[in-house]
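Running this now, will post back.
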Amino acid sequence: MSKIGKHIQQPTGYKAFVPEKFPPSDLINWDDDLIMLLSQADIAIGKLDAIDQLVPDVDYSIKSFTKKEATLSSQIEGTQATLIDVFKAEAKIYDEKPSDVDEITNYINAMNYGIERTKKLPLSLRLIREIHKKLLKGVRGQHRNPGEFRKSQNWIGGPTIQTATFVPPPTTEMNRALGDLEKFMHGKDKLPSLIKAGLIHAQFETIHPFLDGNGRTGRLLITFYLYKEKILGRPLLYISDFFKQYRSDYYSKLNGYRFDDGVNDWLKFFLEGVKTVSEDAVVVAQKIRMIRERHIKEVSSFGRNAKTALFMLDQLYTYPIVDLQLVKSITGLSKARALDLIEKFTNKNILKETTGRQRNRRFAYHEYISLFSKDKID
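Update: finished.
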């Protein structure tokens, strides 16, 4: 038994984890290490939230922060598509669209939808179901009741429930535990918001209320909760970068959360992730500002094409991989004038030709892309 719950033998012969009423009063041990990490994470995420003051044009970058989080969160669950694939898919200039890039697109849509919904709705079970439905629309898991809490037992790891790594609560206990979690999410208690965000994620993963997509949904809850609590004014935290980099620790700490002393270990891991990723994101944003300021100066020297070129530069933050057709579509220029504009951008090394061929060439805003992805661009 632990503070979180206990494994209980079920009539059909397996043991399932049944959560205690959540949260128990003595859930957290406020030791010095936890207090120090909370303070550091608070400072780091505070700087991230204040990024508007450092980077006046942060709006240009938000979409890429969101796309990075969506890509990494999906990759934790086995998706092979990369951020480069997402950029190509959005620009409709891929040779062959990866089959699972739609999973990342769904994640982006679910995040944007959830951010808007939290402006009107509390963070609730209703919202969680809506988000889940968007995540699984038309992709792997689409036949596993998107938007509906499970009505049957599931398990994690192992070919059978008897050999599973973890068996979440039976449905009757699941519904009770979800009710506790919902009250906790919008309850007025004195727990620091970052601590609550970490607990919400871990408790949701413990309950595992869907037949598929629990990990992605649970990671989205972190963003939604921090946004709802005004800890983040924009979805700039790509926490999945840390979770993916330390994937074995991520799963180990989540599993340990259900045992004695595991809550503190999980929270320390989570806060370390918030601190690390927030500090990294601030550095990235500052680099974007410097790149943008430099490129605005260079593009402003394009003479009579300067106004169109500046507009095109702005669009590169949404479409950092382009081809001739996309440039024509964005700018409204003729083929000849669009080619001339692309040549000006490549001469200034703002765009880099990536395909090495005469026809259907593609061009990447490589300096910007490299801040979010180290994958090869072709």
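The mean pLDDT is 93. More later if anyone needs it.
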